[in-house]
Write a structure and sequence with these properties.
The structure is a single chain. With 537 residues, the protein is an alpha+beta fold. It folds into three domains: 90 residues, Immunoglobulin-like (Sandwich); 122 residues, Up-down Bundle (Four Helix Bundle (Hemerythrin (Met), subunit A)); 168 residues, Protein Transport Mog1p, Chain A. The chain contains twelve helices and 22 strands. The strands form four sheets. It has a ten-stranded mixed beta sheet with strand order 2-12-9-18-19-20-21-17-16-15, with helices on both faces. Strands 1, 3, 5, 6, 7 and 8 form a six-stranded antiparallel beta sheet that branches. Helix 2 packs antiparallel against helix 6, helix 3 crosses helix 5 and helix 7 crosses helix 8.
Length: 537
């Protein structure tokens, strides 16, 4: 009995079912030259009240829709036969699949058949073309010959960064608030000594002198007695000071308060009325400020001084904490900048693939460099070398009763899935009866199964394949779009399928990985070169 063979695709189910087609599909030719038009026709028979919507779009799979012709209608008694034609083309040679499409009849979808077509290249007669001499071998410059330029760029960037940091540190004004003092009196005393060292009076800068002198007094009063001295006018400050003396029970004489008021008003005259006091008056005012600050300090109760000391220690801890945080942030930012500069130089010198393979990590590179395994799989056996051991898969539930009856043995081994970075599977089928196996028909069946299970825009090319022992087979290869059922995003994949047919059996090998992955291409080549086929005797 002659068996119609529709090959089982290696990574999906192989359910075969028959049903009456509501929509028939046909093409005027399955082989055309590049750019020639293929006429695709859909036919369906409906009653006079049915509503039919044929597929529309600019692309059917990888074929471009040149024209969508008007629907022809043929009346047959109480029914209509609807005929819809499309003009398709493709400008690259190879084997393409016109995918299954949906025709909506009364809001119910009906799937059309997929059709495999071949686009033939245009044969060029080279004997009639003008021939040119072969050019001399050109020397390709070494990509790494100018590595020293990138090193100089890195050194230059680091030098500029250091200069900017040095300039900012040098021109940064010292912040007095960051200097830690044990108490307000210690701070005031230190600032008075610093003021004396500036020699502002000797240089004639009297206004600046009085401004700093009174600021020292105001700052001390604000910190020690806790009144807004820096923001108050002289009259407001003296009024608030008198209230604080009574409230805090400070033992200060009226003379001390008057001396403070006198110096503050003298400073106002110098700053706003351009008054010029004599040298002995300036010296006397400094002494009055020093004595006032000292007497206020002596009049403050002990417990108040202790509280102030604790506050200063707390402020000191906060300042130190902020400094450490700034330092850590600077170190972190510097490290990140250096890291990005280094990665940029690596990419510029050796390319992004080198960065991905050696620093970021590349899953297929790990497979290539790992320990490979050589083993036999299936019946008839296939001896093959793979980066991982292939695991046996249960396919009994995927087969119909008729298929099980026709086969003596069927085994499937695989590693990974279609969604992984690299997928390989091996299937061997042994039939109960000797049959003539058409490998081209097996490839076509696999393509249909791919499409039925979510593969789109399948591009296929085929060629003869032979093992190193001389066993002949058929190789199909190309690209497809694979839709992830979870993320609903598609990715471009490259595949290779190899078929070997014997009178009593069929052996199949498939490898699939992300398109453009050069490491995966090396793995695929090594796997296919290692194939050894057992001959059925």
């Amino acid at each position: 009995m002659k068996i119609k063979l529709y090959i089982f695709f290696l990574l999906i189910s192989t359910f075969v079912f028959a049903q009456q087609k509501r929509v028939t599909t046909s093409v005027d030719s399955t082989k055309v030259k590049i750019g020639a038009q293929i006429n695709l026709t859909f036919k369906t028979t409906v009653d006079t009240l049915s509503k039919v919507a044929f597929p529309e779009g600019k692309l059917f799979g990888s074929l471009e829709v040149l024209e969508s012709y008007p629907t022809d209608t043929i009346k047959e008694n109480d029914t209509y036969q609807l005929i819809k034609k499309y003009g398709l083309t493709q400008f690259d040679s190879g084997r393409y699949t016109i995918p299954s499409l949906q025709v909506i009849i009364n809001s119910k979808p009906y799937v059309t058949d997929s059709v495999l077509v071949e686009i033939l290249p245009v044969v060029v007669d080279t004997l009639k073309q003008h021939m040119y001499d072969i050019k001399d071998i050109s020397t390709v410059p070494n990509d790494y010959s100018n590595w020293w330029i990138f090193v100089l760029i890195l050194i230059g960037i680091a030098g500029i960064a250091n200069l900017i940091i040095y300039w900012r540190k040098r021109n940064k004004k010292p912040v007095e608030e960051e200097i830690i003092y044990a108490s307000p009196i210690e701070k005031a005393t230190a600032h008075l000594k610093s003021l004396e060292k500036k020699s502002l009076v000797e240089r004639g800068e009297v206004k600046e002198y009085y401004s700093e002198l009174t600021d020292i007094a105001r700052t001390y009063i604000e910190e020690a007695i806790e009144i807004p001295a820096m923001e108050s006018t002289t009259d407001e400050l003296i009024a608030a000071f008198k209230i604080a003396v009574v409230k805090k029970k400070l033992s200060l004489t009226d003379e001390t308060i008057k001396n403070l008021e006198k110096v503050l008003k003298q400073a106002d005259l110098v700053k706003f009325a351009k008054s010029k006091p004599l040298e002995f008056e300036i010296a006397d005012d400094k002494i009055k400020i020093e004595k006032t600050i000292y007497k206020i300090h002596q009049s403050i109760p002990e417990e108040v001084e202790e509280e102030e000391l604790e506050d200063n220690e707390a402020n000191q801890a906060k300042i130190l904490k902020r400094k450490k945080a700034k330092k850590r942030t600077l170190i972190l930012v510097s490290a990140v900048v250096v890291l990005f500069i280094s990665l940029g130089i690596i990419v510029a010198i050796k390319g992004f693939d080198f960065l991905k393979d050696n620093i970021i990590g590349h899953p297929t590179k790990e497979l290539l460099e790992g320990e490979w395994v050589s083993s036999q799989y299936g019946n008839p056996a296939i001896k093959i070398e793979t980066p991982k051991v292939l695991k046996r898969m249960d396919i009994s539930k995927m087969m119909s009763g008729q298929q099980v009856a026709e086969m003596a043995d069927m085994q499937l081994f695989g590693y990974g899935t279609m969604m992984d970075h690299f997928y390989i599977a091996i299937m061997t089928t042994k039939f109960k009866q000797e049959i003539k196996i058409e490998l081209a028909q097996a490839l076509e069946g696999s393509l249909k199964m791919m499409e039925a299970n979510g593969a789109q825009n399948i591009l296929v090319k085929q060629e003869e394949f032979s093992t190193k022992e001389g066993v002949e087979g058929l190789k199909g290869y190309g690209t497809m779009d694979i839709l992830d059922p979870i993320t609903k995003k598609s990715r471009k994949a490259y595949y290779e399928v190899i078929y070997f047919g014997q009178e009593g059996g069929l052996q199949q090998i498939i490898v699939l990985h992300e398109e453009g992955d050069e490491v995966a291409n090396e793995i695929t080549e090594r796997i296919m070169n290692s194939v050894e086929i057992a001959i059925i005797k």
